[in-house]
Amino acid sequence: MDISSVLQGGYQHSLSRSWQSRRALTKSMFMYPIFITDDPDASVPIPSLPGQRRWGVNKLKEFLGPLVEKGLESVILFGVPLNCVKDTRGTPADDTQGPVILAIKKLRELFPSLYIAADVCLCEYTDHGHCGLLHPDGTIDTAPSVERIAEVAVNYAKAGVHCVAPSDMMDGRIKAIKRGLIDAGFGNKVTLMSYSAKFASGLYGPFRDAAGSAPSFGDRKCYQLPPGAKGLARRAIQRDTTEGADIIMVKPALPYLDIISDAAQLAPDHPLACYQVSGEFAMIHAGAAAGVYNLRAMAFETVESMVRAGATLILSYFTPEFLEWL
Ligand SMILES: [Zn+2]
């Protein structure tokens, strides 16, 4: 056999196998998405997301305390308002007594070392379930949408969040949020993580169950990206870096590894996040339950593929498991 044919000598030991990764997985790469509802004592299982619950602020200590002990370093909050009055502009999004703002304050107090991000969107809070404000014909009215989303982001910053993460996909919102943060005195205090390449995916179903954020009519295809849109994704990533995003995100993750890889090349100087979304998580669980593969092995394989593609931060419902496994 030719010398150049022989590779196996290089990875015959578990340690030398670990050296084959450019970057090793660490606990700090994982950000845990959590659902906060407006019943302060809630601890309600979400059937379509195995092991995940909707939590009330009074339960955060018992929920997250053990995870922080195991090395949890960051969470991203999603508000699930079940009792508020929703309207056309998503007024409850930044209600000072709403679940997200109360949870930010509570978590800052309970866990001073925990990094707290908050998803910023209007769809959980609008009566029509869309991510922005609408024209009478049901299309997005961009300017007031962006203004409102920036206002919500600034109010989360005022509550003490470390990172705001707009997921709405409205044109121009990164620039507006960054300007808003700077003008309110948070330019050097709050990170802006953009859901830059967020695709109109079939993998969001369990999340919509969990967050109650399905649109009441139509879909989100006029603002989320078409699955085949590599070029649009690249343009969105480049736009958001120039508009002031501190972190670029690709969502979902596994079917879009090429986009993660593109983002790593287009924005090499930014941290790069990807979101292993609810449907990816549910799919891995379902496959494992059906005996197709081992859950842990597949969880590792999927997140390792994301890191290999260039991700430096992974939003995943597997975070509690990885705190045990790593
Ligand atoms: Zn939304």
Automatic annotation (TrEMBL):
Keywords: Heme biosynthesis, Lyase, Metal-binding, Porphyrin biosynthesis, Zinc. The keyword Zinc applies. 5-aminolevulinate 1 binds at residues 208, 220. Its EC number is 4.2.1.24. One of its GO terms (cellular component) is cytosol. It holds the Pfam family ALAD. The keyword Hydrolase does not apply. Pathway: Porphyrin-containing compound metabolism; protoporphyrin-IX biosynthesis; coproporphyrinogen-III from 5-aminolevulinate: step 1/4. It comes from the Eukaryota. GO terms for molecular function: porphobilinogen synthase activity; zinc ion binding. 5-aminolevulinate 2 binds at residues 278, 317. Its cofactor is Zn(2+). Belongs to the ALAD family. Catalyzes an early step in the biosynthesis of tetrapyrroles. Binds two molecules of 5-aminolevulinate per subunit, each at a distinct site, and catalyzes their condensation to form porphobilinogen. Homooctamer. This is Delta-aminolevulinic acid dehydratase. It comes from Amanita thiersii Skay4041.
